[in-house]
Sequence to fold (158 residues):
Amino acid sequence: MDAILIILGIVAILAGLAGSVLPVLPGPPLAYISLILLQFTSFKPFSVKFLVLWGGVTVAVTILDYVVPVYGTKVFGGTSKGMWGATIGLIIGIFFLPPFGMIVGPFLGALVGEMLAGAQSDKALKAAFGSFLGFLAGTLMKLALCIIFAIFFIGSFF
Fold:
């Protein structure tokens, strides 16, 4: 039984790493599942406190992945209309343009929102670029967390 759980854990880690860069898969939650699966083996390498702590980090990173592009819009000079545009673009992109909608949606939404607010095209593009940088930051957060989980998973055998 341990072998099956370990193999499923490896698959979850690989899917989590892929999900960090592919917007279709929820990367960190999949990678976290690998730690849970490993806990059901005879090894039981992690404490409950450890799993709860990293579960909280997983939830936080998953939520931040949706918030950071909107925040990036604001940091790069976007108005509330640009931030709303990025949010609406993200939601529309998730449902209508998967998997690329999470990348293109916030960018186009922020751009359209800023243009509707009467911003000059250069300011609107700057805000949209902030949304894109926010997306990249979210991707890096997810990838880093999945790598940490992979290290914990592999390290539990040594």
